[in-house]
Each structure stands twice: as C-alpha cells, then as structure tokens.
Amino acid sequence: MVNVDNLGVLFLSELVGTAMLVLLGCGVVANVALAKTKGFNGGFLMVTIGWGLAVFAGVIVAYASGAHINPAVTLGLVANGATEFGNAALGLTVPVDPVSVSAYIGAQFIGAIIGAVIVWLAYKQHFDQEPQAASKLGVFSTGPGIRNYAWNLVTEIIGTFVLVFVVIGFGGGRQGDGGLAALGALPVALLVIGIGVSLGGPTGYAINPARDLGPRIAHAILPIHGKGGSDWSYSWVPVVGPVIGGLLAGWLAIPLLPIIT
C-alpha cells in the first residue's frame, strides 16, 4: 500500500528537480540561441556543458526522491526490477506500482512545463527581439539536424540507453536506491555531458521525454511573440525513443551487469 505522505513528498521532489533541470538546461539554450544575449552564438559545447550542470542541479534538488527527473529513468528502473522508489536513507520510499510510477512521471512533466515557463520569463525581452521562430522553438525542444524519423528515433534510443544503463551499472535499480542520485550529482552531470558531445549531434539528445514534451507544451501555450509552430510532427520521437532506450537498458542490464549484494 502506498504511503500517501511519502508519495506527496516524492512527487514534490521530482517536480522541483525536473523544473530546475529544465530551467537551467533550456536556459543555456536560450542564452546561446536568442538575439542580444550575453551568450549568443556560444556554441554546442556551451549547451552540452550547461545541460550537464542542469542535471547536476536537478539531482541535488531531487535527492529525496532518488532524482529520476526523467520518465525514461523511472521506466528503466521498473524494467530492471526495482521494488521501491524514493530514498531509503531518509525513510522516504514507496512501493513500485502503477500509482507511484504515474506520480513520478506526472511530477516530471509538470515540473518540466514550469521550468520552461520560468525560462521564458527570464528571457522575455530576448524572445520578443529574436526574429527566427526556429530559434525560439529550439529553446524549448529538440529537433534533428537531418530529419529522418526512423534514424532520429535510433539516436534517441541509443543515447537514453547509455544514460540508464550506466546509472544502473553504477548501483541504481536492483543494486541500491534507484535513480540518478544513485550515481551521484557530479558523475551523472559528466555522463550527460559525455552523451551530449558523443551522441548529441543528430537530434540534440533529448534523452528525456519530460524534458522535451513539457517545454514543447509550454511553447505552444505561452504568448511568445512570433513563435511559429511547435513542430508536433517530430514531437513523438524524443518521447518514444527515450522510453524504448530506458526500457532496453533496464532489461539488458539484468543479464549484462553483475548484481552487487
């Protein structure tokens, strides 16, 4: 039976952690992409480092819930055989069941939308003066360098597989408290930077359904001047790809990684 009080704390932890992740992650893209910012044209390496540090901050903030801050991580841990979510050291755990899984994923999507709205507030004047609709959308969501849905999907599957597989290999899932917090804030930040510089070129490496779909929804509903469309035709790729990658990592970690008892 789910402890409602614990689940509420874990829900809030995931919400705030994902909001911080998106605030700083989409924030670095805004700094690089929008007109007249101090970081304008800072380049892809600046974006990858910024996203790594965004994950660092998100993991720190969401420590109480195990810092999934990503539906692909949540589902990957389920596939790997996790029996509870949360932080046992703090006495904040809930059993893995449809309620807790839904709470985690719901918190992640809500947090991502909130983080994206705050980015828009921080860069409101620059959104107003940016002439390119594509640059505005790029702050919120990913897009492919070469649009080919099948191959873009493959890239997202591979990138997310690496993320979840390494987290489980370090000690998440069945080997201890599940989530990015099991890896540690600094190592997981370096892992995300590594994924970005190695595998991020084709699609911008969403590797997180909430990180992409949540801000895309914010882009669609916010009154952004001259924003254009939200590219819904591509929106399924950074959702389906990470889900598949996370599930594959969880399943394949069972035969490929040793279990530490």
TrEMBL record:
The keyword Transmembrane helix applies. It comes from the Bacteria. GO terms for cellular component: plasma membrane. Keywords: Membrane, Transmembrane, Transmembrane helix, Transport. The chain crosses the membrane at residues 15-35, 42-66, 72-94, 101-123, 149-168, 180-199, 239-260. GO terms for molecular function: glycerol channel activity. Its main location: membrane. This is Glycerol uptake facilitator protein. It comes from Agromyces cerinus subsp. cerinus. It is a multi-pass membrane protein. PROSITE patterns: MIP. Belongs to the MIP/aquaporin (TC 1.A.8) family. Pfam families: MIP. It is found in: Membrane.
